[in-house]
Amino acid sequence: MTSIYRSLNLILLGPPGCGKGTQAKVLSEKYHVPHVSTGDMLRSEVRRGTELGMKAKEIMDRGELVPDSIVGSMILRRLDEADCARGVILDGYPRNVEQAGVLDGILAELGRTLERVIVIEVDDDVIVRRLGGRRSCPKCGRVYHMEYNPPRDDATCDDCGIALVQRDDDREDVIRERLRLYHEKTAPLVQLYEQRGLVVRVDGNQPVEGVTEGIVEALGTPLNR
Ligand code: AP5
User: What is the pLDDT of residues 44-103, one digit of tens each?
Assistant: First the structure.
């Protein structure tokens, strides 16, 4: 945790594949606050074959957004857990103006504030290349890229030794739909949070370490409000 923050509630905002999950993992270890990803939570429901997971899978495979009510209750339950008391790194939530309103309500009820909204900016053509090459371990969830961050041994997880898999929504037609929805529904949140003086923009087109440095530097600067 940096000394200028008593708590650290962050939103990582940016298009699919911009590196939210990759950066959230590094920041979570650095600042000792949990990484909360609605995408990961939904994929865990899918893997466990729950009713919610089966409903969500069809929607996710089309690249559409799961209903606000479902993700809203998931996030409320998660943020109320003890490990989130000193902060959280939100990845994939909120995704539209309605969800941003729900998050405001949850944070107010829990007596917390949002410290920063990190916007990771990446060009659309880079996104398509990144998501096309993404593979992950079905056991531990570790994320690789076959070109930029390949596993040591062909296509198996360095930690678990089992075959890596491609996400069902990382097909090019689905990636295009996810990008379209990002620009229509999620990008307007940048302006909303900008009006509150919370936004810092980081160039996500650079290598992973450069993006991390940009975020850490931004977090070291005083709040603009
Ligand atoms: P979600 O899981 O949130 O997907 P997303 O936002 O589309 O983002 P991704 O996880 O695809 O990408 P990322 O930005 O985390 O990139 P990553 O670090 O993996 O959501 C999936 C679905 O769930 C949604 O479509 C929706 O249906 C549903 N959902 C989730 N939340 C919802 C909500 N709030 N409301 C409604 N529905 C919701 O990196 C990508 C690849 O690039 C990796 O291979 C990585 O190794 C590589 N990489 C990362 N950074 C770099 C770099 N700097 N240079 C080179 N390669 C890099």
Answer: 999 999 999 999 999 999 999 999 999 999 999 999 999 999 999 999 999 999 999 999
| pTM across the whole model | 0.93
111: left (phi over 0), alpha (psi -120 to 50) or beta: left
> Which CATH number goes with the domain that contains 116?
3.40.50.300
Cα 2 to ligand 1 centre (Å): 26
Q: Give the β-pairing of 87-91 and 116-121.
A: unpaired
- When pLDDT is cut at 50, 70 and 90, the band that residue 220 belongs to is confident
Q: Is residue 154 part of a domain?
A: no
Q: Which atom of ligand 1 is nearest to the CA of 133?
A: 44
Q: How far is the CA of 209 from the centre of ligand 1 (A)?
A: 18
Which residue lies with its CA nearest to atom 7 of ligand 1? 16
Which of 167, 176, 185, 201 is flagged as catalytic? 167
> Which residue range forms the structural domain that includes residue 38?
8-125+173-219
Q: Using alpha carbons only, what angle is made at residue 22 by residues 17 and 24, rounded to the nearest 5 degrees?
A: 115
**Cβ–Cβ contacts within 10 Å for residue 105, how many?**
11
Residues facing 46 on adjacent strands: none
